[in-house]
Specification:
Length: 125
Amino acid sequence: MTLVVLKKRSEFVKVAKVRNTVRRDTIWVQCLQNNFLSTDKFGVGFTASKKVGNAVCRNRSKRRMREIVRLFLSDILREFPEFKGNFVFIAVPTTRNCDYTALVHDFKNAVRRCIKRSTLTPNKD
């Protein structure tokens, strides 16, 4: 499995248009199912608005999210072999200071729920 980082605004907007967002106390997750992607590539993007705090706080939040994606996303995706798509992880103000185990729990819960929602209602590109 290869993770490709989403960098262009248009890629983030495409994922947001689907309106498949799962909100948790410490993280928000958006996903877009795309059946035309190769099976070994998944797009991931990270964002933190100024509501999270200054640049130091936003960068800390994104670093925490990147590390959790690196450690846990592949395990979750193995549970859903039929899913192919992109994810956007959005930091909220509590992302930077929350307990790490709470962040991991919310991340896993949100990703699983987001994938289940997207596979129930297939995207019609």
